[in-house]
Design goal:
alpha/beta; TIM Barrel; eight-stranded parallel β-sheet; three-stranded antiparallel β-sheet; 11 helices; globular; binds (4S)-2,6-dioxohexahydropyrimidine-4-carboxylic acid; binds zinc ion
Amino acid sequence: MTSLTLARPDDWHLHLRDGAMLRAVLPWTARDFARAIIMPNLVPPVVTGTQAAAYRDRILAALPDGMTFEPLMTLYLTEDTDADDVAAAHTSGLVKAVKLYPAGATTNSASGVTNFDKVRPVLERMAEIGLPLCVHGEVTDRDIDIFDREAVFIDRVLDPIRRATPGLRVVMEHITTLNSVDYARAQDNSLGATITTHHLVINRNHILAGGIRPHYYCLPVAKREEHRLALRAAATSGEARFFLGTDSAPHTDDNKLQPCGCAGCFTAPNTLPILAQVFEEEGALDQLEAFTSKNGPAFYGLPVNQDTVTLTKTAPDLPSQIDTAEGPVTVFDPGFDLTWSVQ
Ligand code: DOR
Ligand code: ZN
């Protein structure tokens, strides 16, 4: 196959940041994607409907002339979140999900949740109105090994929350383990799971073997090869519960290349070429559109995009780094030469 046309993809988990970084990274997403679920972990976080509306306006103002893109806004769940405010932001159409960060789990998660009982009223309200909860699924206990934090979260937090809140629609974000794939497969259609581009490509050896590679460090951290293979099987399966959430998370090289560097891989510019190659390697190019363009809208109850993108079998001309007013940001290097381009 040398050409592939897909309904225009959406990104169901994206970090756009704010200010100069937003202006630099947004065009890369808007080039290939029609919509994205926008993560609310700004400093300070996007907690209220008013804050989400203002952030949406800043995103649209940062969009270059001639480009179209629809930001699907989320609210950052805190122990003080007001259920009425959440419901109003949902009813108005502004907000498409609420994001749960366990406090301390990742970048700008300090205002997240420590005591899950405190957010129960908000979760019950969300179940009533059908508003999905996007979950960063890692426990934060210091005594739990970082490679086990996702699997432990399922047993200790996720499953209890779902049992206590029947009907709550949940997205397991950026799953990285066979455990999550198995758990997702055993649930009904109130549960979806996003998979990133980079977790289909790297395992933990890529980060640590033969030298430490900070640009491959993200959270949840990449796991053993058997987990990467399970993610590839899930993503390419066509199953409706699995869809693309890139978790493209730009940080300047200055902030990545530190004794204590930031977590995040910037994959917005090359996600579609990488995915086409992964799906081709798996003999599943016919399932790419389900993963990038169909399963996500179905979960969120939104129409599939009418517009299309076409991929052709030619090496893309993509930068290895982009310039921002805050400094350069390195684009995720899949470690192989790309063979598909977005036309
Ligand atoms: O690697 C990550 N980067 N994981 C997250 O959960 C947050 C993100 C970020 O905001 O940088
Ligand atoms: Zn994220």
